Structures are given as structure tokens and as C-alpha cells.
Amino acid sequence: MARPKEFDERAAIGRAMDAFWVRGYEGTSTQALCEATGLGRSSIYNTFTSKHELFMRALDHYAERGIVARTALLEESETGIERFRTLFSYTIEEEVEHHGRGCLVVNTVAEFGDRDPEIKARIDADTGRHLTLLASCAREGQLDGTIDSAREPGDIAEFAHSTVAGLRLMSRRGAGRAAMEAVADIAVNAIAAK
Amino acid sequence: MARPKEFDERAAIGRAMDAFWVRGYEGTSTQALCEATGLGRSSIYNTFTSKHELFMRALDHYAERGIVARTALLEESETGIERFRTLFSYTIEEEVEHHGRGCLVVNTVAEFGDRDPEIKARIDADTGRHLTLLASCAREGQLDGTIDSAREPGDIAEFAHSTVAGLRLMSRRGAGRAAMEAVADIAVNAIAAK
DNA sequence: CATATTTTGGACTGATCGATACAAAACTGG
DNA sequence: CCAGTTTTGTATCGATCAGTCCAAAATATG
């Protein structure tokens, strides 16, 4: 029909996501977004409407990648408890590799709380998906006898989710691998069958 | 000597702290700081030099209040494990009362990571003081037989610190009391003597 | 009461904010 | 190769950013 875009939309969102990840929403200017994506202002506003909308897209992109990666990761393990062990150690590995980037969702929760309804909806959706996934792992673990059956799967899921957030925060403030591993080890034992 | 200040410096810092707490550093304009404190621009810049400097003062104020309150709180309990139980339930109570404000230090870690050296120094100092406090509680609990002696006190401290951060994040994203209590209960059992 | 010192209010700075206007450029379908 | 459509670069918008300037106001000291 007309002139085609000279850039890959997905790739641009990925770059924008990285920028927001490092400096937050308010801390990332539209100019910085142009530089990060390599696009001009026109291209950005033409395809993403506004800074806020681009942030939503970045958040969606992040959440999607995350839940997909975690779903795949958790399927690799045999027993329920191993899934959680893997989740934590994978989180730590990621953080050590990326030198403490932390988590975009955690950062966004900290920056906005529940002030912005559109953002809150994204956070809630992502949290819900993770809790569902983790609860099903917990249920499995209770069936295979590796996870404490005295707890509600939903509670175990909340605990694990909170632990991952805690690890990502530790990492972002510069904690070392040893400290994170100690936390993870206590967390794993906390939900293991007695 | 000369004209005296018409305001209480501490009170002003407290108001500024509240503003930063809600909207973060980048999200709080100097204009908003004027409105929050009730001061004019001149008074703010005359006494606090810059937005950044005022933020440092606010962070110091927050950290000081926090460590004092927590030290006092932990002294109220009898046994080691009770201290941790109290710490968690007090955190939850605070969050429920304040309708999910979260924690300024957690928010600041999320917003800055370790990009700003002055901020990082504050975060490190506050983290260090909390870890020291928590580790001594853990040691005590090991002596009185209420806390798992197989763990290093420092590791238990990191775990508890991370748990509190996790709870504050949960609260900020809007989690309910029940979910937070479930997490806290698992965390307490995780470090209790077996 | 006069002088020195400080605070205060308000106007103002250049820079940057997010967003828009517009025309040249680049493509597709006919 | 032309008409129609979209993207792109550039210039620019008004608003707001953090921070400064300065004169009026308010106090302490002599």
C-alpha cells in the first residue's frame, strides 16, 4: 500500500524495554528512547502513540518473555521441589550474568504501586499467571511427595513469588551470589516435605 | 544573628520523604516538593541545596526512623523466633494500615539500582544495619533453641531481610493481608528450630 | 534605633520534557 | 510511471524541569 517501516517493531520494543528496565519510566526520556531504539521521534510516535503506550508494550513484551521462559524452565525438572530449586537458581544465575539488572515488573511495582490503572492491570495479570503456574507446581510436588502437604498450593506460590522478587531486589542493590544462594536454600527447605 | 527560619527542618524533610515515597525520585518535581513541604523554592534551595541533597536527607530520615523502630520492636519479644514473627506481622500491620505504601528503600533500590554512588552508600549502610540486627536476633534464637542452629545467623538475616522486602512489594502491588500472612508464616517456619 | 545577617517570595533562567506539524522520501497498486 | 498512502527527518510546540537571582522582610546584636 505504502512506504514500509524501516525497522522491526519487536526489536524496537525490546530496546525500549531495556531502557525502561535500567532507568525506570520517569527516568527514561523520549530522547533516550529514540537513542535506545535507533528510531526518530516520528517513527516512535507514529507506531507507539505515546511514551506511556510504548511502556505498556515494553511491559507486555517483558511479561510474555518471562512467563514463557519460566513455563519452559519449570517443565525441565522432575519433581515438584526440584522445580522450585531450579526457579531460584535460574533467577540467581540470570542476575549474576546480567550484573544485577533486577526485574522490570518489580521495578514498575516499586515506581507506580497501584497509581496507574493500566499499569496495575498488567502487573496483576502477570502476577496472576505466575501464581497459577507456581501453584500448579506446588500441587504436583505435594502429589509426588517432595513438597509440604500441610500448606495450600496458593500460599506456597505466593511465597515463592515473593522470594523471587526478594532475590531480584537483593541483586539490584548489589548483593553477591553467595547471599542469594543462602536465601534460596532456606526458601527451598521452607516448602519441602518434612 | 539574623532572621530565623519559619519552619521546622525535620518536619519539612518528613513531608518531602512522603512525597518521594509515593512517586519516587524522578517522579517528584521540585514544585511538588514545595507543595508537599509548604515551603517556597528559596527556602528549599537555601536549606537543602538541591533536589538530590534533599532526597539524601529524606532517605537518611527514613532509614533512621526505620532502624530505630525495628530495634525497639525486636526488643519487645522474648525468644528469637518470636522476634522474627513480630517483625513480619508488624510489617504486615503497617502495610495494611497505610494501604500499601511499601518501603522507600525498596523503591529506591528498584529505581536506581547501584547507578548513583551516594544513594548506593545509603542503601548499603541501611542494609548493613538491618542485617546486623537480624543476625543478632538469629544468634539469640539459636541459643534459646527457637531457631534452626544448622544455619548461619547471617544467612537467616539475609532471608528475613529479603522476606520483608518481598512483603513490602506484595503490599505495594495491592496484595491482601491474607496472602502476606501466608508468606510470613512460611518464612517463620523456615527458620524455626526443627 | 541602626546595622549586619539571614530568610523569604516571586520572577526568571536555559534546558529539557512529551508531543505535534509538515513536507520530503519511499514504497505499492493500478 | 503515476496516484495514493505511509514513514521519516527536522523543526518546533507550549509546558515543565531543576535551579538562580534579587529585593523585601524579619530578626539579632550593638
What keywords describe this structure?
homodimer, 194 residues, elongated, DNA-binding, mainly alpha
Largest sheet of chain A: none
- Biggest protein-protein contact in the assembly: A-B, 47 and 47 residues
H and E order of chain A: HHHHHHHHH
Question: Beta-sheet strand percentage of chain A?
Answer: under 5%
Report the helical percentage of chain A.
over 70%
Q: Structural class of the helices, strands and pairings of chain A?
A: mainly alpha
Question: Would you report the number of β strands of chain A?
Answer: 0
Textual characterization of the structure:
- The structure is a homodimer.
- Chain A has about 190 residues and is mostly helical.
- Chain A contains nine helices and no strands.
- In chain A, about 40% of the residues are buried.
- The interface between A and B is large, with 47 and 47 residues.
- Chain A binds a DNA duplex (30 and 30 nucleotides) through helix 3.
Secondary structure blueprint with pairings:
The structure is a homodimer of 194-residue chains.
Chain A: H1 9-23, H2 30-37, H3 41-48, H4 51-76, H5 80-97, H6 104-112, H7 117-143, H8 153-172, H9 177-191
Helix pairs in contact in A: 1-2, 1-4, 4-5, 4-7, 5-7, 5-8, 5-9, 7-8, 8-9
The structure holds a DNA duplex (30 and 30 nucleotides).
